[in-house]
Predict the 3D structure of the following.
Amino acid sequence: MLYAKNRKLIATAQAVVNYKDKKAEKVITMRKTFVSMIAAAALSAGAVMPAFGTEVTLGRFFGSCQDAGTDVSAAVGEACIIQSIINAFDAENDDFDVTTLPTDWGNYYDQIIASYASGNPPDVHVMHRHRIPEYGQIGALADLTDDLMAHGIDPDDWTESAREAVTWNDRILGVPMDLHANLWHVNMDLMEAAGLVEDGRPILPSSPEEMMEHAEMVREATGQYYLAADFSEFEIGVRMVLAFLWQQDSNIFANGTATINTPEARNALELITGLFDGDYANSRTNYADSQQSFLNGEAAVLVNGTWVVDFYAEQAADEDVELTNYYVADFPTLYDEPATWADSHLWAIPASVQRDDPEVYEGALKLLAFINDHNIDWARTGHAAVRESVLNSDEYAELPHRSEYDNTVNIARDTPASARYGAIQDILNREFQAIWLTGKSIDAALSDAEEDVQSQLDR
Amino acid sequence: MKTMENRRLALLYTMLALPAFIWLVPTLWMVSLSLQPNALLARTTSNTFWGLIPYPLTLDNYLNLLAHGQVHVWFFNSLVVALGMTIGVLVLSTTAGYAFARLNFVGKKTLLVLVLLGLMIPEQAVFIPLYTLFSELGWHNSHHGLIIPRLAVPIGVFIMIQFFRGVTRDVEEAARIDGANTFQIFWHVMLPLARPAMMTVAILTFLYAWNDYLWPLVSAQRTEHFTITLGLASLQSNFAQSEGLGSVMASGVIASLPVVALFLIFQRYVVRAVAVGGSKG
Amino acid sequence: MFEQFKTDLRWAGVRQNLVAWVFLLPFVFVYVAFLIYPFCRGVWISLHDWNLLAVTFNPDAKTFIGLDNYLRLFWGTEMTWRAWARPVLQGLCVLAALFCVWRYRTGELRWSTLWQCLMALLLLMFFFGWAPGEGGRWFDRRFWPTVGNTVFFVAMVVPAITLISLLLATALNRETRGAAFLRTLFFLSQVLSVTVVTLIWQMMFSARQGLLANVVREFGGVPLSWLAEPGFAMAAIVIATVWWSIGIAMVLFLAGLQDIPQEMQEAAKLDRANSVQAFWYIILPNLKRTITLVVILQIILHFQVFGQAHLMTQGGPNDQTQVLVRYIYQTAFRDSDLGIASAMAVFLFVIMSVFSAVQFMVSREDEQ
């Protein structure tokens, strides 16, 4: 069937090609072309919308999973777990028909903005806690407060931080799905070789100096990197710096004033550049490379989020993968108070859908209730659940590696709310990368970053 | 003399063999990677001869894509957009080009200058206002939304003007004496003559439409309206997260095949066409 | 009788006008509606503080701020004027001026044109003399570096493409199967879409999985992360672009070569000129016009580079591969700042029209 369709498309292309020099046949060929084009159109339209319920379009990132199926319990990884939940909802509800529009992470928010501005947003879409101010202040998102209970979503079951995440001006604008944070993913074999394991747990540093000592121990014992992370692509490196800032009770801005050019920021950055200078870490790795080097046993620690715990656990079980003894740890406290970067994924519905399209709104809410019911499945990725009932369940506690990083929810933090969050993160990422990739001096980078962030805050 | 010439040719080809090989390697590598299992590629990409030989060989990546992917939808969108744009540009540029080159009307000079000035406006300088305009019209996420902006670009008109100016007036006069009116002359005399120039316009437009990235990126926000160029960009990072390198490369090959096939069929025309457009431009 | 003739004539004139407008109307309508009008609208947007999202939900959320957006781009604090404040940009102006004078001396430029060019360049020189002095800074620190990156990209790509495609065209300008095959091969990459090109080259340059890295490792070297390495990221984009787009330039040169009379080449052969001499004394002078055309077309085309930088390096590391169109796109669709984005788009238009004007002038002077 699918092959036939493709052949037809190729036939279309050829029909178009063949029109040259055949005056007499031209009209006939053109007509043929037209007919086969319509046929192809009908076919591909059919492929997009197989059933006849009300269509609910859903926008998300997380990557694509083509073989997700409807068996939620069998799925591994963010993309496949979320897609299997959506597919299961779709299979159970004949009245609604969910069309998933997976967008690549790099362009996701640009395209969401573009879709809102063109009056065409997806009927329900995922977003981060940090974007709520940007969309909340212009009234772009539907106010779900009064409709949640009726659809079996109990906001009181959510943790306090999850409720905060979706609340704007005392109204609930979304359904939270998780709390995700930066963790230390540990290769226990390398740590063991360096003598950094005690009672089956890795010994993590409790001060900057100790971290450098550990790094040296790993280097001496194994010849591998102490730490790997994405320092050259996404904001993983920035989130490390932020954690070190908060641990010193500092922040990048407060009350509309940028406070980046500080001794605390200098400490944090010197700590990281120290790792590069000692060749304990490689500043050139992007997201995929850092992950691959960890899986290949080339780094004792990988700094990455909660979203990969089940994936790494699965990889560690694979005989072909170098990493075998995998452990997950809370982000260690190197300064005064514990802190790690965290954010939340949540689902929102555009205000226009609530206003103009009750049927679709109904479907979207039902879907969100279904996702809310599957909070435990989403937590399998490694994210922290948002529902107290899930958090307190045995099933949750028994999730692989979960007990190893259960303090993360208590130390989770993020920068102050701002409608220009995206632009600010981009400035930090650019300036920090300038330090460790292009050798810009820390002082110059910090003062430039402070001025640029200030001008964003002033907008 | 003949052998000498042959020897020189042989030397030339030997000298060109290396650059030709270098030019081909990236494409070969893509094809080769697309034929290897994802699990293997996750570990190493240099399995056999730096990964240039697809061994172990598998077709899974392609089968997977064809069975589940939206690649065929994107391909269809690209085809509709590229053909629609090509036909539209041909109609607009031949008619306007003919009028500018051969008909007299009030304000011709002014209008011509105005149109030529339009050549200086790059697409990137108007894509923001076009975006807001199309938002108001509700034209985003549609085929015509992707086609129309390019119809306004006057390069096609420019090429057609140059061409029609070069046609001798005798043909036209003869037809007029035979009692043909302007429309008949245009349809029966000028258009058949203009085939090479139309081919130029058609091919340049088709290639442009097939490869355009910026406008579809802002105008098509829904995956079912993506063109193949845009869809592929989203696949690249989506697949990198989950499906693996082999699938990404397979999607690249599938997206390229039709246009490469078109090119191979049309290549004589492409070469001639670019040349016609170029030497007149 | 005479009156009748006059009415006929007038009627004929009206008819001719009508017919012409039937032919013109479709294009003129589309042209005005979707190019001229949006362009004017773009200029209008650039005079506002215009947040994309906010204005969507409340059309009155924009405020007219005159030229402030332009000021934000081109100006800073503590601006002072110095003769060589920005040596690169001002140096380029001087070079351009010298080039014009040289063209005039060789008789290829008229006095009036030369004068106009020099005046324009002098104005630019003066403008570029303004820069933030002691303790000052640009309002937008990224704008000029971004323009600089774009210019640098063009300055690398255009000569490389021109040279390679010219050599290839000369070598392959013959009627043999081998030549036809090679022509196809070198043109082939041109038909790939930018996403496929970046997909291939992203992988080629990857330090872990890349083909280059695989080969380097085989010989015991340490592979380089091209796309994250300062200096190399731009080089990577340039290489990918050159690989992608020599096709059209090569074909243009082939066409130019076809126009060189066969007798000239025969004559050169009889004079026992070797290929290098033939290339230098016969081919190059005859291709002058094609070369100019190719160079200017390439400049206009590559000034609009977007996909390569957006997909391969995301502008990094440290903005080294950030280019103008990507900055416009980000300002508009990530930061929602339509006003500033539009001001940048207008700036892009001004640059493009300068090159287009040069092209127009060159081709006009050539025809005379």
In short: The mean pLDDT of chain C is 86.
